[in-house]
Amino acid sequence: MEFGIWNLEFGIWNLEFGIWNLEFGISILNTHISLLFMTKPFQFKEFSIEQDRCAMKIGTDGVLLGAWTSVADSARSILDIGAGTGILALMLAQRCDAEQIDALEIDEDAYEQCVENFENSPWADRLFCYHAALEEFAEEMEDEKYDLIISNPPFHSSGSSEERSSREVARFQDALPFEELVWGVARLLSENGNFSLIIPKEEEENFIRLASEQKLFPNKITDVKGTSSSKVKRSLISFSFHRSEIEKYELILEESRHLYTPEYQKMVAPFYLKL
Fold this sequence. Notes:
The chain contains 9 helices and 12 strands. With about 280 residues, the protein is an alpha/beta fold. It has 2 domains: about 1-40; about 45-270, Rossmann fold. Helix 2 (about 60-70) runs parallel beside helix 3. The longest helix is centred in the N-terminal third of the chain and has 38 residues, at about 1-40. The radius of gyration is 23 Å and the shape is globular. It starts with a helix and ends in a 7-residue tail after the last helix.
C-alpha cells in the first residue's frame, strides 16, 4: 500500500516536473520569438527601419506625426529633434523634395542606427544625422534656420532615472525637457517655418505655455483618440511664430479592435505595407 502511494506521488512529481519543463520550453520559445521580432527590420512601403539598438521602437506616435505634419512646397530644410531610428526624417523624405533633412540624436547607439537607416534608404543623399545635444547643436548652428522642425519628444517626468530601463529613460522628459526643446526650436526655426510634435493630451496646456514664452504659437491641434468612446490620449500640434486662429480637429484611430477608421487608414496608407 505504502509502495503504491509512493509510486503515485513519484508519478505526480514526474508529471509536475514535465509540466515545468514544458512551461520553461514555452518561455524560451517566446523569448526567441521576441528577440527575432526585435532584431527584424520594420518594413515600410518605401524604406525599412533597423531598430535593435534603439531604446524606442517604431510606434503609432511616430508614424502618426510623420504622416500628419504639413510639409509646404517651400520647405527646403527640415530638422528632426530626437531622431531615434530616424523614422520621422525618412517619412518626410518620402513625402517631400526638401533638399536638406537633418536629424539630431544624443544617444550613441540610436545615432549610429539612425545613420545606418539613412544610408540604406532611397534618400541617403538628402539625409544627415548629428550626434549632439540640442543645446550644443543650437549654439553651433546659430546661423542655420529650418523651414520645418519635427519632434516626437520623450515624456513623463516622474521617477528616478537610475530605476528605469533605457527604454523608459528614452520616454522620460529628463532626456529632453520641454523647456529645452522649445528653446532650441525658437533658435533654429525660420521666420515663416513650422514646428510639429506629438505629446500626451495632459501635457498640451503646459507645452503651449512654454512655447508662448519663446514666441511660438499653436496654429493647428489634432486630438487623437483610440476609439470614439475613449479619452483623448495624444495631441498633435503645429506651431509657428505667427498667431492665428487655431484649427482644431479630432482623429479616431479605430472603429473597433484592429478595424481602423477611413481617416487613419488614408493618413498612414502611403507607409504601412498592409494598409
